[in-house]
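Limitations

Structures in this collection are predictions, not experimental determinations, and the ligand pose is part of the prediction. Treat each record accordingly. The example that follows, with protoporphyrin IX containing FE as the small molecule, is included so readers can see exactly what is and is not provided: the inputs are given verbatim, and the output is the predicted complex.
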Amino acid sequence: MSQTNTDARSPIYWDPFNPEISANPYGLYRRLRDELPLYYNDVHDFYTVSRFSDVDSCLLDAKTFSSARSDILEFIKAGVEVPPGMFIWLDPPAHTAYRNVVSRVFTPKRMNALEEQIRAYCARCLDPLVGSDRIDFIADLGAKLPGGVIGMLLGIPDEDRDMIRAKVDESLRTESGKPMDVSQGTYRGDGFEDYVEWRVKHPSNDLMTELLNMEFQDETGTRRKLTREEILVFVSVLAGAGNETTSRLIGWIGKVLSDHPGQRREIAEDPALIPAAIEEILRVEPPGTQVARYVTRDVEIHNQTVPAGSILQCLVAAANRDDRRFPDGDRFDIHRKGAPAITFGRGIHSCIGSALARVEGRVALDELLKRFPDWTVDLENSQLSSSSTTRGWDRLPAAVPRGHRAAAGSHQAAAAFTTEQPAPLVSLGGETWQCTLQTPAGPQEMTVQLVREGETVTGRIDSPMGGEAISNGQALGERITWTMQVSKPMSIKLSFDVKVEGNQMTGKVKLGLFGSAALSGYRA
Ligand code: HEM
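Predicted complex:
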């Protein structure tokens, strides 16, 4: 029976494997949020939360909602054995130990340093299309850029990069209407062995060489290097988590801005709107639609008991359009202000590649608009792809009127997102936190170092805008307050008021006279 309609009288049935639902899920998501905020699917045996506040709090509670059996429904059901290093599918303390390693190499500084390379790569993909009257957002850019960028990061030679994307894409693909086949071994890093061996013999200044050489403290307290198996799994996690999602983002840029030509023209006229446009595209069409968790204890949600041993799907794509959080949540509005979406997850597993994905999205849109300020997607010849973790386009051709602007040089939009590099991070020997500040101009990634001595706190904050020491730091139990004077982009005093709970930091930052912004972070 097809139960995908949004008629309030029909029974609600949500099934992540149903292509009819996947084609247009948002009416059903609204019904889930309004009528069944805790939904149970008895065909595939899982629970679902869809309201923003529920998705948010479940993802923040990593003890009750564990990742240790995977964050994908089919893998949890299959009881896969999680290999060492597969930190996206681990709980603390092993997750914390591995995540610390990745945070050390995956810094906002390194990500932002890639911007010019990403711009050049986009130009290489798009310049040959200048003069034609059709482009395909996936074949021409989405399928190439993310794999290319991960390849740049890891130091994988150009010729092998497309292979990586094809491999990951295949491993996450579901046959329409069916759960994915979990018997494949890609999540173990199969296929990357030759590259790692080659890099051992040919060290360079890439992230792979750093991973091979770095020492870390594992969850048993032992100081050691990563094993070859762990490195293979790391590469596989980074390639898997960063490839398909970002490719989907590029497809959604094409689709959403084709549906909203007025806003697209506005962005083309004023490229400073690009960062806000990318945030709004990520909100209305998050490439990762849901993440799953294993429930470790009986827990009450909306007055019902979700028993220990259940699987809970956190429906990010529904949460992002919750009117309770985002007024008129289905409306696409690049001028929307306020609360950040949950597209990159929350809590200890929140996306470590979000800064990179954002740079890729912004640069891709900028470079597209420079060459093709107008486009109309050809839906008849498009193909929406089906996977139980992501949603997006496999094929998205578009008509581009001839006579568009010539591809050329730099763009003012570059000024809208950072090109400045932070000062090298000098360790102060205290505690280090990777934080995101949701400023009105978009999220700002920062590294916060705090040194506590009794109630006195000193330290510094480094971000792509620069580095500054903190002042007036005070620790009162779990609460820490401090101030910081910044001079860029304008002179302003920031007052931080945060709460530290275990490895998480949440709080507010008063931005001088400009209101306040939410801060969230994790211990690096
Ligand atoms: C638009 C693009 C992207 C989206 C929508 C996205 C989304 C997410 C989400 C929702 C999570 C949390 C998963 C969970 O809680 O179980 C996550 C985690 C992660 N992402 Fe991304 N991601 C994107 C791009 C990237 C990129 C470019 C990379 C790296 C190259 C990356 C690497 C990771 C890693 C390693 C994790 C696991 C973090 C942990 O478990 O501590 N992601 N991502």
